[in-house]
Design goal:
Shape: elongated
Distance between the termini: 70 Å
Number of strands: 5
């Protein structure tokens, strides 16, 4: 008696753990995005909005790029350190240190 499996495919039970890990890493790497290049006008606008938040305690939303992924953080700028090139950002879950080079966008909330 011949059993017909129809359109059922064979499961990937014969993959080694190294292969499964490699396939997961490849799909993870495919989701990564390139960091956008900002021009001089965008840098000026980011600086203006950040200094406005620092001086007047205006809440802003900062978009950062880290390891291929974008992340949005909302809060108020507490300190800007141009020597060490970071911004101390006060948000709901405490203070966060944001490296200036990681910032890709800033907007008022």
């Amino acid at each position: 008696m011949i059993r017909d499996r129809g359109k059922m495919k064979w499961q990937s039970a014969f993959f080694m753990p190294e292969h499964v890990k490699m396939l997961k890493q490849i799909t993870f790497d495919d989701k990564k995005q390139k960091k956008p290049q900002l021009d001089e006008q965008e840098f000026e606008e980011i600086g203006f909005i950040v200094m406005e938040s620092l001086n007047y305690s205006v809440p802003i939303k900062v978009t950062i790029w880290r390891d291929g992924f974008f992340q949005a953080i909302t809060g108020i700028v507490d300190k800007v350190d141009m020597l060490m090139k970071y911004i101390l950002f006060e948000c709901d879950d405490g203070n966060r240190r944001i490296i200036i080079e990681e910032i890709t966008g800033v907007e008022r909330v």
